[in-house]
Automatic annotation (TrEMBL):
<protein>
    <submittedName>
        <fullName>Glyoxalase</fullName>
    </submittedName>
</protein>
<feature type="domain" description="VOC">
    <location>
        <begin position="10"/>
        <end position="126"/>
    </location>
</feature>
<dbReference type="InterPro" id="IPR037523">
    <property type="entry name" value="VOC_core"/>
</dbReference>
<dbReference type="InterPro" id="IPR004360">
    <property type="entry name" value="Glyas_Fos-R_dOase_dom"/>
</dbReference>
<feature type="domain" description="VOC">
    <location>
        <begin position="168"/>
        <end position="282"/>
    </location>
</feature>
<dbReference type="InterPro" id="IPR029068">
    <property type="entry name" value="Glyas_Bleomycin-R_OHBP_Dase"/>
</dbReference>
<dbReference type="Pfam" id="PF00903">
    <property type="entry name" value="Glyoxalase"/>
</dbReference>
Length: 282
């Protein structure tokens, strides 16, 4: 099952603002394993397969560090094709001497780290969807310790050579200011479905019964302010709809809700109630 192609709607690309483009490019190539697809003085597009941009980095004029406790990016998540790929990645991180977070989410196994600007990154692999546990439309997820010894095992892996070709942007997780209002925007507006609630401060949404294409939380506080326009962090992300009909339905829904949605240079753009900017593609 592939949840990151039609007929599903999914996150295709994440666009970040950084303080120092060259520093970030060094990190994302040497540590994460991206390749540069295109680069200008202030911007670069990064790829795993040499064709598709997954991550875009931009160094704005008068950029300032993140002040924290705002809405915006919690993390973006790179989905690797296989468990062996994740094992190779963790060995690579260990060779780099990096400090990592990790978790077994039942539906997936995940590693967590941050780039030089503090932008959160998850690298994960999915378990077989047939093994995911569903009850009354909710998928069971957890934050259990990751069994790294079992993950790495005793197999000898090839020398790490960067992100595998089949890597995709698995999901994005956002800080928001009001969970109920945000839920209405993403479900009634953009067409997602709630598949898991984590207490009263986080929820996970998807299409096609994926465990989540988007995570939403208020862990930076109810009513958290939006970051400054020139702050490092999330610039925008893309949602890829399966066809024009599906995208147009989302645009119609947003207009009926009174949400901001407009066309800029041939691309439809909306902004969620917390100021997170979204490009609606197909």
């Amino acid at each position: 099952m592939n949840f990151h192609r039609e007929p599903h709607t999914f996150v295709g690309q994440v666009n970040l603002k950084v303080q120092n483009l060259e520093r970030s490019l060094t990190y994302y190539q040497d540590v994460i394993g991206f390749k540069i697809l295109e680069q200008t003085e202030k911007r670069a597009n990064l790829t795993a397969d040499g064709k598709t941009t997954l991550l875009s980095l931009e160094q704005p004029d008068n950029v300032v560090p993140s002040r924290g406790r705002t809405t915006g990016l919690y993390h973006f998540a790179l989905l690797l094709p296989t468990r062996s790929d994740l094992a190779q990645m963790i060995l690579h991180f260990a060779n780099k001497g990096l400090q990592l977070g990790s978790a077994d989410h039942l539906v997936s196994e995940a590693l967590y780290l941050s780039d030089p600007d503090g932008n959160g990154i998850e690298v994960y692999r999915d378990r077989d969807p047939l093994a995911w546990q569903w009850q009354n439309g909710d998928v069971k997820m957890a934050v259990d310790p990751l069994n790294i010894r079992d993950l790495v095992g005793i197999e000898e892996y090839p020398v790490w050579s960067g992100l595998p070709v089949g890597t995709v942007m698995g999901h994005i997780h956002l800080h928001v200011s009001d969970l109920q209002e945000t839920e209405q925007f993403y479900t009634k507006g953009l067409g997602f479905e709630v598949v898991n609630r984590y207490g009263t401060q986080a929820l996970f949404i998807s299409t096609g019964k994926y465990h989540h294409h988007i995570g939403l939380n208020t862990w930076n506080g109810e009513g958290a302010p939006q970051p400054a326009e020139n702050s490092v962090g999330l610039r925008s992300f893309t949602l890829v709809y399966p066809n024009e009909t599906a995208r147009n339905q989302a645009i119609t829904n947003l207009n009926k809700m009174g949400a901001s949605v407009k066309e800029e240079g041939g691309t439809w753009i909306t902004t969620d109630p917390s100021g997170n900017r979204i490009h609606l593609l197909m």
